[in-house]
Amino acid sequence: MAVPRHRHTKSSVHQRRMHIFIKPAALTTCQKCKAPVRPHTICKHCGYYKGQEAINVLGKLTKKERKMKEKEMKQAEKEHKHEAPATMEEMSKK
Ligand SMILES: [Zn+2]
Questions:
Q1: Does residue 13 lie within any of the structural domains?
Q2: Which residue has better confidence, 93 or 3?
Q3: Cys staple from 61: which of 19, 21, 65, 86, with CB 3.0 to 4.6 Å?
Q4: Domain for residue 34, yes or no?
Q5: What is the largest CA-CA distance in the chain?
Q6: 69 lies in a domain?
Q7: What is the pTM of this model?
Q8: How far is the CA of 44 from the centre of ligand 1 (A)?
Q9: pLDDT for res 45
Q10: Residue 30: exposed, middle, or buried by beta-carbon count in 10 A (0-12, 13-18, 19+)?
Q11: How far is the CA of 60 from the centre of ligand 1 (A)?
Q12: 2 belongs to a structural domain
């Protein structure tokens, strides 16, 4: 069995381990519902990817859960529309 020749100081051990740590996940926001999602993945909140529905999120829910989720998504969409900057045409009308 290999035996260490010299004692490793705390400092040198810490210096070596400086790069060994879990990095926080890189997150982007969903285009539709603005929930945080990992890039290049389907949004698990609304089931959309690149503006198209990829999975039906409401499919497996019960009637009560579905109603609540639909309400929540509508509200989020309303807020999103309200926040969205006006298009050039709208700006010219004003
Ligand atoms: Zn989404």
A1: no
A2: 3
A3: 65
A4: yes
A5: 81
A6: yes
A7: 0.53
A8: 7
A9: 87
A10: buried
A11: 17
A12: no
Distance in Å, CA 18 to ligand 1 centroid:
36
Mean pLDDT of 82-90: 63
CA 79 vs CA 19, 35, 43, 56: distances in Å: 41, 13, 18, 22
What Å distances lie between residue 36 and 8, 15, 44, 45, 66, CA to CA?
A: 42, 33, 10, 9, 21
Which residues face 37 on adjacent strands?
28
Domain span holding position 77:
28-85
Residues with CB under 5 A from ligand 1 (ion): 30, 32-33, 35, 43, 45-46
- Centroid of ligand 1 to alpha carbon of 1 (angstroms): 54
Which helix (H) or strand (E) segment holds residue 91: the answer is helix 88-93
What is the count of structural domains for the chain? 1
Report pLDDT digits (tens) over 20-70: 988 888 999 988 888 899 999 999 888 899 888 888 888 888 888 888 888
